Amino acid sequence: MRGLSLLLLGLCAATAFAAPQDSDSGKGRGGGDGNGGDADDQPSPSGAAGATSTATPASNSTSSNSALLGMKGDTVCTQYLCVGALVNGSTVQYTLQSLGVAKLGWMAMGFGQTMANSPMVIMWPNSDGSITLSQRQAPAEVMPTLVSSPPRVATLETSLSSLSGNNPKMVYNIPANSDVSQGIIWAFSDTNPGSSAQDAQLVQHLNSGPTKLNLGNTLAANSRDPTNPISTLSGSTSPPPTDSGSSSIPLLPYQKLIVAHAILCVIGFLFILPLGALVARYLRTFSPVWFKGHHALQLFISLPIIVPGVALGIAAVHKAGAKHLSDDHMKWGIAIFVLYFVQLVLGEFIHLVKPRSWTVDKRRPPQNYFHAVLGLLIIALSFYQVRTGFRTEWPQQTGRGSVGNGANIVWYIWVVAIPVIYAAGLLFLPRQYKQESMSRNKGNPQESSDSEEMTARYRDSPDRH
């Protein structure tokens, strides 16, 4: 589905502007494409930590730009924007261009691989046609604040910037550093700050992510134009690239915690808990030891897996500097975790506390039915939670794009298989009810001793899961 979306995006971009773009290290929420204005002018250094000036119209045409052949530079595209880098001696010219996928609010890039402590250049258009450039930094994944003395001062290039058309671009120059493989982060928002002030309040980005630019790359005729990413330097156009290069970016520390969180929670909630429910459903009428297996799986095996799994998720949020319980996945995760402990306590209560209706009348009390329904509800919610985790939460929190379709296929198989297998176990209900009836029939001294023993032993435990 992600691939189809990117293909449709590329076709739309090609129709609207006549030329997509490619990149081999696009990173973020989705695959890449981009447009840029042409820039035959070479970058010239000047400027301060922030700037506001009026942008003069610049062409977004796809004509050839042979003057750049042999120079050093690179282009990378994401779902919402492209970043082009052109090395010019002691400076680097960066072009940030919207792909027209969403309304342009502001665009940003930072020098680093995480939002925390990466020097950022944030730019946005103003209602009077001017552009604001703001250099900021953040200690974590919070709104970055203005830096009065940045390590490298960026200079807005108004003559190379263009706010017209479907693919506005904003260009700046910055002194080059010693990095050849330049790690960067990017961000795109569809909400304009509504102020030209360099310290204006920013609304959280629509998408963001890490990627890399190869500043040692020699530009050839078939290279993407770093000043006009929708075309090559020869002026030809081609379909937009995907973010296939995203997998080459190493996982960040908080992302590794997310992966570990996902693995443990999937094992605990989607394998151990369903297995415990199936043991109770299938073995209760055949072996008096079914409860021992059920009890061990749901408590002694799942608990040491689920608790660390949830803890790793909380640790990942803290490590990223993000806000806890800031979205539905986090809130549902805590809710399911609480229900899991309620279920454990209820199971132990049913096992240890036997009301008169159970010990004398041999009839199942209401809490046993509730225990069964709650257990199945937790498993159902867990399926939903896992899916939102790899389909929504992972790309939103990491900017690395969606998980491969293999996870989606496995999820669909599992979400069908578990209910079907459990439903098949309901075929043993007549046998179960017969055993329970024999246990209640005290007037029949010839009743099967084996059945009574089995029934008595499985009654000394939660009845259902």
TrEMBL record:
Per UniProt, the ranges with Gly residues bias are 28-37
Q: What PROSITE patterns does UniProt report for this protein, alphabetically?
A: CYTOCHROME_B561
Which organism encodes this protein?
Steccherinum ochraceum
Q: According to its UniProt record, where is this protein located?
A: Membrane
> Spans of biased composition, class Basic and acidic residues?
454-465
Name of protein: Cytochrome b561 domain-containing protein
- Which N-terminal stretch is annotated as signal sequence? 1-18
**Record's keyword annotation contains Zinc-finger:** no
PANTHER family per record: CYTOCHROME B561 DOMAIN-CONTAINING PROTEIN, DEHYDROGENASE, PUTATIVE (AFU_ORTHOLOGUE AFUA_8G05805)-RELATED
Residue ranges of region Disordered? 20-65, 214-245, 436-465
Q: Report biased composition (Polar residues) as residue ranges.
A: 214-228
Q: Name one GO cellular component term.
A: membrane
Q: Where are the transmembrane segments?
A: 258-283, 295-317, 329-347, 368-386, 409-429
Keyword terms of this UniProt record: Electron transport, Membrane, Signal, Transmembrane, Transmembrane helix, Transport
| Domain Cytochrome b561 positions | 218-432
- Bias (Low complexity) ranges: 44-65, 229-245
Q: Which Pfam families does the record match to this protein?
A: CDH-cyt, Cytochrom_B561
Q: What is its main location?
A: membrane
